[in-house]
User: What shape does this take?
Amino acid sequence: MVAKRIIPCLDVKNGQVVKGINFEGLREVGDAVDMGVQYARDGADELVYLDISASREGRHTFAGLVERIALGIDIPFTVGGGISTLDDAARLLDAGADKISVNSAAIADPTLISRIAEKYGSQFVVVAIDAKDIGGRWTCTTHGGSRLTELELFAWAREAQERGAGEILFTSMDHDGTRAGYADAVYARMSEELTIPVIASGGAGSIEDIRRVLSEGRADAALAASIFHYGQIPIPALKQALRASNINVRL
Assistant: This one.
């Protein structure tokens, strides 16, 4: 059985890790490299760095920061934000990223997924999806959740998989930053409909929340930010508790 993964998410703005609720009211919580080094030491399986201002402000992810992260940590990490071309992907791969995450640009041009996957391999491509429940329909958003699209969550996830995505990173914008639990039923359905791994993001507030999304929600990995950034749940303690609940994690 493949081990479930615990993935701290570091939302980055100008080289600093920031956190807010629904991507608003952001405040700095630490240095992106220093925090990554500490998470690697604590036993995180992977890291995700998202430049949350890149798409909205039309900037490319800062490759120099990726180089510093790659030098400092020895676990896989994904980088997203402002990746809109094959050249962007190549720049980040050369800088040391293990995977890249595309979101807004992939919605604008879905062929971006297949073009990157064909050139570098599906294992290099994570398609991030931010969606909101609007009248019972999960609607995809872009630019850090600030713009609604016409795309329906599950249909877009299936298309992303067909185009060559190696993983789906789904964030419920209704749950993000609230610490009120994940959208477990949504992840369970997504895991049923897809054959590629699903990373759950948005709403972690307790060990129980993570246990549920990895079991009832059937997610392959749980991504969280606040509970790790503020020391609410140490990763070693989280993994011990998950193992005690018969969830396969690497200790």
Q: What stands out?
A: The longest strand covers residues 125-134.
